[in-house]
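Any chance you could type out a protein's amino acid sequence plus the matching backbone structure tokens because I've never seen that pairing?

——
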Amino acid sequence: MREFDFTVVYSEGADHLMDVFIEFPQLYSRTVSCHVTSDTMWRVDEVTGPREALSAYDDQLANLQRCSSLRGMGGCQVDWTYETLTTESTRRLIYSKQSESEGCRSIPYLAAAHLGDGVLCRAEQHGDEYRWQILTDDDAAMSSIYEELSENLRDGLELRFGRLDQSPEWDDRRGTGDDLPYEQREALELAVEYGYYETPREMSLQEIADAEDVPTSTLQYRITRAESWLAKTFLSNETGDVSDGVALNQSPGATSDD
């Protein structure tokens, strides 16, 4: 099996929903599950980020009128429904069903059309990029998918194609940044930004907390939890084992430290 990826880069203003990801760089979406046939796609997406970003995301999703970044490559009317399965302060779980139509083809649809039903796909959205990964043993069909995508790419979108030369990394047990609760990831980003992990240390946690106007105890708690997650995730990736107490089992949107 080989892993291929199609990354679509969006210019600002090219897509209303993708504009939310561009406006809020902390917003991140990934497929939890994606099933596609030659005419229909079902999927569940997990979206994480700050409250204001998710509020903007909710508004755009509720008013979506055309095939957009979640739905495919075109800009036409599309037959799709969605339901918010989980609503948390920094996390959403979205179910959607899409039927393909002429002039509005999604990347999973093209993969199924060229590779047959049962193709494995997953995606992530962050910033101006919407990336699809496809797992297949049919290398030859990839060029046909790329050509059709390129020919139908609308204005404001750029397509990039890649292939993983080594064995595909398709193991969901591996820890990724989206497994870390948003507040803890944000605390780590602030610590790095302010030089907390530099040698010598540029700023203390108290100084960072003062600069960001958050309680020092809150920042310390989030940093400690995040560092624990990093250590346990690193060891579990090295050994392939995950202990019962590893924070990977915590919901990505958990906000127990609020």
Notes: DSSP finds seven helices and eight strands in the chain. The mean pLDDT is 78. The beta strands are 2-10, 28-36, 40-48, 79-88, 91-99, 120-126, 129-136, 157-164.
